[in-house]
Structure formats: structure tokens, C-alpha cells
Amino acid sequence: MPPAPEADTIRILVSTDNHVGFEERDPIRKDDSWRTFDEIMQLARTRDVDMVLLGGDLFHDNKPSRKAMYQVMRSLRKNCLGMKPCELEFLSDAAEVFEGAFPHVNYQDPDINISIPVFSIHGNHDDPSGDGHFCSLDLLQVAGLVNYFGRVSEADNIHVKPILLQKGKTKLALYGLSNVRDERMHRTFRDNKVRFYRPNQQKADFFNLLVLHQNHYAHTPTSYLPENMLPDFLDLVIWGHEHECLIDPQRNPETGFHVMQPGSSVATSLVPGEAATKHVAVLKITGKTFEVEKIPLKTVRPFVTREIVLANDKRFKGLEKKQDNRQDITKRLMLIVEEMIEEANAAWQSIHGGDDELDIDEQQPLPLIRLKVEYTAPEGAKFEVENPQRFSNRFAGKVANQNDVVYFYRKKTGTARKTKDMKALPAGVAENLGSMDTIKVDTLVQEFFAQQSLKILPQAQFGDAVNQFVSKDDKHAIEMFVMDSLSAQVKGLLQLDSDKITEGLDSHIEEFRKVMEQNFISGQQKQAQRKRRFKERPEHWDSDLDGHWTAQADAIEEVPGSPEPAISRPGRARPTSGVASNNDEDGELFGEEPAAGAAAPRRTATAATRTSKRAASAQKTAAPARKAAAPKKAPALGRRKANPFHDSDDEEEEEDVIMEDDDAEPAPPARVPPPKPTRETRARGPAKTRQTTLNFSQSQKPKAAQNAIEISDDEISDDDAFESMPQTRSRRR
User: Fold this and answer.
1) Side-chain-facing half-sphere of 732: CA atoms under 13 Å
2) Which of 143, 391, 417, 466 sees the fewest Cβ atoms within 10 Å?
């Protein structure tokens, strides 16, 4: 049979779990991840593929560093942009499969020349989180470099819509399913809440390809996604998240489709599954058939791992009975490590055997070596081993992981004795801490709350907030969870009648907590997309005395993305002005609003009467404040002679303390004092009223003939609208 023409073949470069940014602070391994990703993108350009398909975990961190983001964007721009036209025809509605500011495929954007489009889903490392629910792929999509698809808006009701592509006579239906927590994904599939959409016309002519990012193997009964839960109309499944390279497609006899597991492009853990040769694949689809071309990656650092048991190894026979056998064991283990280093170097040479000329950056790298040693000795004998880090440091300059070359462990014999701290923890938490397996934060939180129940806060959301704080580096996750939960509880209680509250407050709190718990478990309660905004600055706010309004912690408020129904509060009068309504909203969110008729802060009258132009508006603002009982009006300050050495702050302070007693009457004309021969302002006598003009300038010299004026506490009454300043105040410049 003659080979199929290229005009009808869709060529896809497949890669998963690139983990760009892994160990970027390590002096030796810092560039491994992005160099391999750059090699993958160069393969896409040199192999002349039609598109690149990524299976999640493009970045290792949820919030990648600038260096990681820069290297990814550089590789994408260098290899994916160009004048070569993309031969893929886009058939589906882009608004249904893409979200964000630009809901269309990037190679159809008239402002960008894309020659090789990249399609990607998110994994568990680069998933959306935080304010706005964005992830790193959103940044790449808004820059026009990546087509981010496969989003999951509701975890308990998943709709998977395909991207329909066509080249010649070959039609491709590309399905994407981004990472969801494995237990929740398993439950959603079990409850038949996952719906796969198929083309309306000629559905039998499409090649159905699914890319997902979930656990492939059972760690617990529900912490993975079984293959038989996937629909059987699929032709090929590309499985991300698993790092072991099993790139040869394996047919599932029960469902009939093939499964391909490309594995990671960089070793993120020193386990045997990561030691296999890393590959990417060029998937060639023609009609309803496909073939896979494996390509080994050359920039991957060589990695060799072994595991030995000293009691069963012939090279260590008889040493357990020898006294002070540490030196002999160390020497023989060093020989094993040297053999492993030679093996790793030989493996690298075999991949690069045909490359006679190598660049300086592509010289043979230091290998990764991991020797796992069980040193359990027979009864009555003993194996003495060296400190693992000291042993590993012997190979500095020969290996890349010079701090963890060897791992010593003993076989577990019975239950370990619990310490005092372990006894204080619940049983399930203590077992997990005592095990040597990887501990998940959410598992510890769930087991802890199983023993210590909460009364107000929902436990499932609490565990998710702790997981976001620890795993996703979301510093405000717990804080926002507590605020949202308490606010929801308060609003729920305020909607109850007074009779129901007196009957049993605890029962209502518990009932509302269970409702929030159930909503979160079922996936109905989405993460609020909060926006921050500044509250309107109050009229009585004085920036000189109180500081800048935008620098205050209370000036910022969190606004929910979706409008919430207003809750009526009986027995409270609401202001009618626009400013008062905004403050009322803030009171709804953050605390109690002031009761009608309550006294406003005293500085309101002072700030409201600062200038005569604002006298009309100040009448309403300063109305709640009590008037100062002064027999006569304080004289207003006139314009003084310009003083180049006088600080403007002092001048503003002097103007602030001058006030008008009667807000209803207009301000009297300014009285101009006679010019002073000197620049000193203290020579002016005090006002006739009890309000004294103060000057806080530090440039004046004290005179012996003039005594400091002190105002006793008896002279300042509560009715005075002026608030005394502190005696020591630093002069701002």
C-alpha cells in the first residue's frame, strides 16, 4: 500500500509535564527544564509539524518565576511564529472551547503570524488559583502564544467540548480535560456527570483524541481515573501527570482505544520511573488511523538509580560481623557509585554518538545518581553506615545531586514507638506522619478534622484553603476563606426572625455550616472572583493629620465578582446620599454601619470649615458635630508676607485650627495683620476665644522672656470641636 499523502496527514508533536522552573535555584540543575523545553519546540520546527499538544504541567510552580516565564515565551516566539501558513482548518465555534479576552484560535488572529499553533491544558502544578482564577497559561494565551483549552468550570458537572480541525480529508476532534482533584474527578465520572460532546455531522469521520492530566494508577480506591470510565468512542488518549515514559500506545481491550503516556521531560524525583530515557512523539493521523514516531530527548541530564540490600549482596558478605565496619562499607559503596557514574556517562554517549560537533553548552553534563541502600543487619550483627550527606559530598564535581546521592533505610519491624508529640495528634494523622510515603496536606487536614470538628467554619473549604496556602503559595487563601465564611454566616443569621434566633442559635449556625459544606462538596460553590477597589475618601479625612487615604488598610475593600442580593435589616435608617450608600455597602461587608443620628468624628467640623468656599456643603457634613460654645468668633487669618523659610506644612496646620463657630453664617472678611519685621510667627497673640493657634515649627529659637502656653485639661471641654495635637510631632519634609 503506498504511503498516505502529506496533504491528508495531521502531524502533532506530543509532550507532557515539562515542569519549566524545576530546581531553578540549584547552581547545577537550574537550566535543565527550560533547555529541554526549548529542544522540544525546536523539534516542532525542524520536523515541520502542524501543531504542538501539551498535556499539562508546563510550569513546575503555580506562580512561575520571571526567568521561567521568559524562557518559555522566548522558545514559543522563536519556534512557533513565522510566515509559514498553518494548514489546519478550524471548524468548531471558538467561543465554546476558548475563554478569556480573545476567544479565538491564535493562528486566525490577523495581528499575529502563527506557523505552528500550540494547544495545552493545565495540570496540577499550573492550575488556576487566586484572585481572578487565572493561571500561567492565561498569560501565554493573552499574549497569543498558546491556545488554552480544556477548562473545567464546575467540578461536579463537566462538559467536554471538542476542537474540530481538518487537514485535507482528515478530520480531528480534539478533547481536553484539565486537572481536577482525583477523588472529585472519580466521583464525577462515577455519577455520570461528565458529558462529552460530539460533532453534529459526520461524527464517524472524525478521529477522536483526548488529552487529560490525572493519576493513571490506583494509589487509593478513588484517587485515580480508571480507563474504563472514559467513553469508548475515543480513538487515542494521551495521559499526562505520570512521569514514567510509556510512549508506545497500549490498547485497552475493554474500551478499544489506545493509551499513550509520554511522561515528563525532566526528572523531578529520584525514583526508578524517572530513570527511563525521556521521549517525545510525533503523532501522525491520517483518516481514522495513526502512527507514532518516538524521538529521544538529548538535553535531558542522564540519571541512573539502583537499590541494594547489604545483607543479601555478596560484595558486603561477612562485614556485619566485623567490628567498626563503617570504613569498609563506605569504600565498597563508593565503588558502586563510581560504576553508576560510568554507566550514566555511557548512556549519554550512546544518545549523542552521531553528534561529532557539540556546542560548549551541550557538553556532557554531570549525571544524577541515586543509590538506595537497605542496611538492616541480621540479629546480633550490625552495619555501620556513614552520614548520607557526608557520603554524597565525596562526589562533588562528579554528580549533579551532590547532597543526596545515597539513601540509607532500614526495614520496618513492627510499629514504631510514638513520641509525645505524636501521641497528641489524632490516630490517622500520626500514621501518615510516621509513614515514609509522600504526605498530602489536604489528607492531613481531613483526618485532623475528623477528630476535631468545627462549629462555624466548613471543614471541606478549610482543607482546600490550607492546601491552596501550602501547595499553591496563595498567602491570602486562609484569610479570605475565614472572612467569606463568617460573612456568609452573619448574613444567614440576619435573615432569620428574632423568634428563631432566640430558640436556638447554635442549631442555625450548624445547619448553615452544613449547607456551605454540601455546596462545596458538590461543586456548586465556586471560588469568588474578587476585585479590589478603594473606598471613597470621607470628607472629614485630613491627609496632613491622618496620612494618605490610599495608604490605609481600611481603604481597600474586596468586591465579589457576582452581585449578591441585598439583605434588608429592619429597624435601621439608611442615608439617602450617594456617599452614604457606598459607606452603607462597606458596612454590609465589613462591619456595622453607624446608627442614624450618632455623633460624627470631631474632625468633621474642622475639615468642613477649612475654607469659606466649602461653607455650604459643610453645613450638612458638620451638622452631627456639636458646636463649640465660644462667645465670639475667631478671627480668620489674613495673607501674610511670603516667607521663603517657612514650611508649607506649618502654614496648613495653622489654617486647620482656625474654625468658624456658626456654620450657618458666612465667613467674615479676612483681617490683615500689620507686617512683621521678622519671620517669627510666635509674636502673634492668642485668639480671644478659647481656641488657640498652635505652631509646630522647629526652626524658632526659644526666648527667655516668653513662656510656653499650656492649656489645661479643664479648659478643653468635650464640646470643643478641636482635637489637641500630640506635643512631639516630627516635621515632614
Assistant:
1) 10
2) 417
